[in-house]
Automatic annotation (TrEMBL):
Keywords: Signal. The lineage of its organism: Bacteria, Pseudomonadati, Bacteroidota, Flavobacteriia, Flavobacteriales. This is Uncharacterized protein. It comes from Lacinutrix gracilariae. Residues 1-22 form the signal peptide. It comes from the Bacteria.
């Protein structure tokens, strides 16, 4: 009887310890991020801006090639360049049109607050300096984001120190994001945002400014 009593006490202790550990594990889980209109940037928006900027540059170059007269030795090359540029423009437009908005893709808040224009003559993407997460496009599993100051080439933010990819709740694991911190919380000014994924690498010029 004494042996049976000791065994029962040990089993009770083990079960209690296991239950307590499970509760601790649950309580120690990171709280899910609540996406607001100003705390994240969607990689799809960066990519669309890049494609639109690229097309604007191609169209400007096409206008130059169109000025080459047929008597010029470089006429045929100019015409071939025009065809190639138009094909690239069409491909870029097709890709941009296929990018889903984050609201449609993941049912999260799309950045929509009115943003004042950047100081002239910055031809750049305007963003608030309050974003701390980047949401990945569907199908993207790896990403590095680097934000570099145009003024002094310093790193304003980077996901290189936080490569963990998190899943957005209630998206069937389709929605993913990475978190980061700005090295200067209230940084304002022109920056270069560079994105590297398993399928694409590109940079866009942007201007970060305060929310207020």
């Amino acid at each position: 009887m004494k042996t049976r009593y000791v065994v029962l006490v040990l089993l009770s202790f083990i079960l209690f310890t296991q239950f307590s550990c499970d509760e601790d594990d649950i309580n120690n889980e990171d709280e899910p991020v609540t996406f607001t209109s100003t705390n994240y940037i969607y990689e799809g928006d960066l990519r669309i801006y890049y494609l639109e900027t690229k097309n604007a540059q191609l169209e400007a170059q096409i206008a130059v090639w169109q000025q080459v007269p047929d008597s010029d030795p470089g006429y045929n090359d100019a015409q071939a360049n025009i065809v190639e540029a138009n094909n690239e423009i069409a491909s870029n437009e097709e890709e941009a049109n296929a990018i889903m908005s984050p609201a449609n893709a993941f049912f999260i808040v799309n950045p929509i607050p009115p943003i004042p224009p950047a100081p002239s003559p910055c031809l750049c993407l305007i963003e608030y300096n309050t974003f701390r997460h980047i949401v990945l496009q569907p199908g993207t599993d790896e990403m590095n984001l680097t934000i570099t100051s145009i003024e002094d080439q310093s790193i304003v933010a980077s996901t290189n120190n936080n490569t963990e990819i998190n899943t957005i709740a209630n998206t069937d694991a389709i929605g993913k994001y990475q978190s980061f911190e700005l090295s200067q919380a209230n940084f304002t000014g022109e920056v270069l945002i560079t994105v590297d994924t398993e399928t694409r690498s590109y940079s866009v010029l942007a201007y970060l400014q305060n929310l207020e």
